[in-house]
């Protein structure tokens, strides 16, 4: 993870895993509205979109590969709202990348 993104005065860089679901959509909306956070990407393996849309506006890149999302988006935090069957693998990938995890 790029340590330049860890400045105390910088917004927290957030990746949302499962961004296409109902709760993931709400998390994207909340992160986008928060002054101390920035949505840096959304991950969902079935996404057909190139961008995460929040209120109809392009908010961040969309990814179908979690390892690519972690590498390219450089999140500090990943919020995971995926199915239990895949969450463990997602969480392990984030931990390996040095990303803080928030899980449902």
Describe the structure.
This protein has 104 residues and is α/β, with parallel strands linked by helices. It has a single domain, classed as Rossmann fold. Helix content is 32%, strand content 31%. A 6-stranded mixed beta sheet has the order 3-4-2-1-5-6, sandwiched between helices. Helix 1 links the parallel strand 1 and strand 2. The mean pLDDT is 91.
The biggest sheet amounts to: 6 strands, mixed
Instruction: Give helix and strand order, one letter per element, not per position.
Output: EHEEEHEHE
Number of domains: 1
What would you call the structural class?
Answer: alpha/beta
Which tags fit this structure?
globular, six-stranded mixed beta sheet, 31% strand, alpha/beta, 6 strands
């Amino acid at each position: 993870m790029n340590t330049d993104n860890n400045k105390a005065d910088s917004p927290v860089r957030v990746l949302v895993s499962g961004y296409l679901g109902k709760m993931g959509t709400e998390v994207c909306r909340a992160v986008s509205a928060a002054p101390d956070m920035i949505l840096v990407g959304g991950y969902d393996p079935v996404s057909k979109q190139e961008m995460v849309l929040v209120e109809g506006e392009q908010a961040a890149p969309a990814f179908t590969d979690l390892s690519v999302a972690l590498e390219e988006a450089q999140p500090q935090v990943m919020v995971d709202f995926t199915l239990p069957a895949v969450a463990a693998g997602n969480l392990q990938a984030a931990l390996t990348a040095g990303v803080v995890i928030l899980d449902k």
